[in-house]
Amino acid sequence: MYRQEIEKYLKDNNITQIDLILNQDDKLAIYCKVKNGKLYDYTDHVVDRKKDIWGYLKWNNGQKERMAF
Fold this sequence. Notes:
Blueprint: H1 3-12, E1 17-21, E2 30-35, E3 38-41, E4 55-60, E5 63-68
Antiparallel strand pairs: 1-2, 1-4, 2-3, 4-5
């Protein structure tokens, strides 16, 4: 899923932050937040619009689960 699609999904579901997993085999996720309608990573840079992002972390009672888009 590309950045624009993720931004729309987050806006439609009233979500302001997400932990993105760029590639299926990545061990770590990237904390991201929405500011002014754009998705920014933890370094305050806009997420690459051309990168096809694999998934995100879903948190439930402190436990994480890897979810594909």
